Amino acid sequence: MSTILLRVEEYLALANAHGHHTYARQADAVGLGVATIHRLRRGDPAGARAVAAICSTYHVEFAELFTLTHVRAASSEVAA
């Protein structure tokens, strides 16, 4: 399974360069909720809508601000 994660340092540098210094300004700029920006910045997975909004707003390619990580699904253990 793959998970999309925001490259937080790169994102913050770009957002700050555009004057988007707060969670609220970042959310307004990209058209997402403040809670979504909080989740992305703390390392939670990004959805397609968030990726598209951020890349479109800042005119960047996916790989400039996001990384695709592979995680193993936990195996189901059956209690006997």
Molecular structure report:
With 80 residues, this protein is α+β, with helices and mostly antiparallel strands. It is built from five helices and two strands, in the order βαααααβ. The protein has a two-stranded antiparallel ribbon. α2 packs across α3. The longest helix has 11 residues. The model has no long low-confidence stretch (mean pLDDT 92).
Distance between the amino and carboxyl termini: 28 Å
Number of strands: 2
Q: What is the tally of helical segments?
A: 5
Order of helices and strands: EHHHHHE
If strands are numbered along the chain, what order do they take across the biggest sheet?
A: 1-2
Helix content: 40-55%
Structural class: alpha+beta
* Shape assignment: globular
As a percent range, the share of strand residues is 5-15%
CA-atom Rg in angstroms: 15 Å
Q: If you average the pLDDT, what whole number results?
A: 92
Give a quick summary of the entry.
This protein is of the alpha+beta class and 80 residues long. It is 51% helix and 12% strand. It has a two-stranded antiparallel ribbon.
Provide tags for this entry:
single chain; 80 residues; two-stranded antiparallel sheet; 5 helices; 51% helix
Itemize the secondary structure elements and their pairings.
Layout: E1 2-6, H1 8-17, H2 23-30, H3 34-41, H4 48-58, H5 62-65, E2 66-70
Antiparallel strand pairs: 1-2
Helix pairs in contact: 2-3
